[in-house]
Amino acid sequence: SSYDSSTYKEPDIYKTANKTNGMAMFCSQCRYGFKGSEKFCPSCQSVFYLKLNRFGDSTNNEWTTAVSAIAGRISQSPKNKNLGLILDLRNNPGGYLSGSVFIASEFLKDGVVVIQEEASGIKKSYRVDREGKLTDVPLVTLINKGSASASEIVAGALKIRKNIQLVGETSFGK
Prior knowledge:
single chain; two-stranded antiparallel sheet; 3 helices
């Protein structure tokens, strides 16, 4: 499975937050989390979390399921209660180039995701290929020395195109 929210470790202050479908919910006032089916309390805020382990055969389907759940929660809650999303690409060794374009397209409205240059000098541009559900959600991406290949393409495209913050270590550098 390329999507796994079980590895997420919450900061101590949010230990009581419940996680469902990659969503870490917390309340800034009462410090109590809530399950995905419960209604939002007036003080509850949401930080959504997606961990992408690799870019493989099932990534797009699993990603679509997780993003649909998050988009549903975002649409149900007041805008000022959604703080944003953490995209965790740490220790993601990469995978299919098409997968990196698919994932980056979730956050970019249009334009080039990556340009591939062959040894012969021929260049091919890969552009946003669909309408993403999270293009307006504030985003932070986690990377480390284990982030390589397709995960670096996603992180780089988001950094360059959306000026999002990359948090962690320098990536593998593939």
